[in-house]
Amino acid sequence: MVVSALMAVSFHTCAMAEGGTITYTGMITSQTCTINDGSPDFSVKLPTIAVETLMKSGETSGRTPFRIRLSNCDEDLEGVGVFFEPGANTSHKNNRLINLGTAQNVELQILNDDLAPVKLNEGVDAQDVKFVPVKNRGAVLTYFTQYYAEGTPDAGSVESNTQYTVIYP
């Protein structure tokens, strides 16, 4: 009796639902542009501000522009954009950069050239990457960084970093 029950269990088959095929596509290209005259790593220095300019959560201050300059682009390249890579310094709850310095309750926010916040913790499509046309084999992508209060900040240093990738439509 026990043996027949075990045999019945071992020969039990699962019902199968319909399935399908997932196809993944992509493209690998050679480097198509030179970034910042060959210096892709750079720093953005924000102004020193008083604690009083960020007294409550959601306040911003110190908006500072930065540019990613591309040159020597392939002649057939029509547009370029920048994807900011999600990483260890990206806040998963609010898409800003976590402060690695000593000031408390302050983060860094990146804005595109329309002053809309870049969704740092999102993929390429959800980040709403803006592509700019390539003219005379070059392009300039403009962004801004600003302090963002998560509460009343303490005085101290503010520092963070992010990785970025130049992408093509």
From TrEMBL:
The keyword Signal applies. SUPFAM superfamilies: Bacterial adhesins. The keyword Hydrolase does not apply. Keywords: Fimbrium, Signal. GO terms for cellular component: pilus. One of its GO terms (biological process) is cell adhesion involved in single-species biofilm formation. InterPro entries: Adhesion_dom_fimbrial_sf (IPR036937), Adhesion_dom_sf (IPR008966), Bact_Fimbrial_Adh_Pro (IPR050263), FimA-like (IPR039458). It comes from the Bacteria. Belongs to the fimbrial protein family. This is Type 1 fimbrial protein.
